[in-house]
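Dear colleague,

Following up on yesterday's call, I've attached the two folding results inline so they're easy to grep. Please treat them as preliminary; we haven't cross-checked anything against experimental data yet. The first protein's sequence and structure tokens come first.
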Amino acid sequence: MQVHLLNAPSLSSNTPTPDNIVVSGFKSNDAQAILDGFIGVKSDGSSYVPQKLAVNGNSTLYQRVVKPEYTDDIYVMSHTGTTLLFSFREKQAAGPSGVTSVNASGFVPDYTTLVRSTRFLN
């Protein structure tokens, strides 16, 4: 599997948490099951309902998960038996006080551009 990113933004070396973008690959077209397995259920027991998008012609799910401990922006993109999950930890709280220790929300546009530049080559 190859992933080709076109015009991907370069994130500054001053990024507070340079490891807060994760890309995982799966041999599956079941984007909903992959998303559900990654984010689980809400604290009230209900499921998240992702936004359905088309990114470069590929079926894509988007979910923003806001919890007291963190905020994540997640995209799940499928193409011919392969699914990529992109996760960006936008904010991270510091322990039980709930004080935000990392706030990378200013990088959300760069992250979105990176995801939207993904092209499957096959």
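Below is the second protein, in the same order (sequence, then structure):
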Amino acid sequence: MWRWLLLVLAGCPRHTGGVVETTVVPPEGTAISIFVGSAPGSAIAVIDDRRKITVAGNAFTLDRIDPAAQLPALVIESLDPHPDHQPFRIGTCVRERADSSAPGLDRLAVPRPPQKPLQPRASLPVPPVGVLSPFVRCTVAAAPGTYHVRVLQVTALPAFQTFHQVSITGEQAKIATRFAITTLPWAKQRASLIVFDGLPGNAIAPRASARSEVVLDGAVALLANPPTTARAHLRRIYDGALRDPATLPTTPSWGKGSSTRVTTNVDLEGVDLTTGQVDVHLELAGEAPRDLLVLPTERERRGTTQRLDLGPIATLRGSRKTSVETLGKVIKQQLALSVTNTGDTPQSVSIEETLRPELARTIAGLSATAKVVGDLVRVDVVVPPKGTEQITFTVTYTR
């Protein structure tokens, strides 16, 4: 994937050979594009570095190559015009195995714990983090001299964090996102840094969300995008079905398990938050302001909305009963969903059930107030104090 990504971003073949016709030689400098996916740990960086190199003895040395970058995906091209059609073809590139700088040697000198008796010895020792050299030596078919080149490399970003701050007042949410990035230790060189929401190659093109000039000194750089607003729908929801991702919807036991949690949820319209920490500040009429931390397991994408789980409601308890009959390719499922209110005030609750996706279905027994949106059934009810509200319906699927 990384090699494909570099070729797309470079817009040229890997290790370009032949003549590169340019009328203006781009200035030296570094641009870093960070692409952030919705899954944890999916951030990658594409480093576009324009620099000068010196070729001697059909080889040259590159510094500032991230130890985590994959050398087979490295793209190097000459930016100089060659009116005499002199070749510039990259051969093989190899990395120095150890960083001979003072910090690198210090890491190598860290004592390792003694091996315990009868403990199996590892076949290959694992080098300490950060001891790979940033120097890479490449062979090249080119005349001796100085060349202006472009170097593209892709690297993962283990030291990258995203923080979302969502402030909800009534039916409006204000969303601010910050990015904390540990920069590369490249002798305090300056770089242009852009953060994109999304990964290249997805159905939706990545969107630039923050940009800044940073110093590559190994310290943490903070970037922030302008705050945005979105409509916020706060609901008390009972969605008791437990769905195992490893179980196919065509399996009769799909969604058989259930929970009793009734939660407060907020749906943010037209918002797709990248992976990262979500801090919510909630201000509702008649209630004291609250600050909540939403974990990655407590948020999900539902159609065009981002749903945040703000926690269970102690006075509400849900119940879900289901029975399934199968006859050939037909699955008939009967459902009884109810919510009990142990409190002293009425509570508005949305009872939801996610249907088996991608199967033809017929629904019977739903009330006129029920809503079916895509694969979701929702019935809004008001549960009286010390009372219970129940809905029942049947879904017939054809596999």
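For the second protein, one point worth flagging: The longest strand covers residues 185-197.

Best wishes,
A.L.
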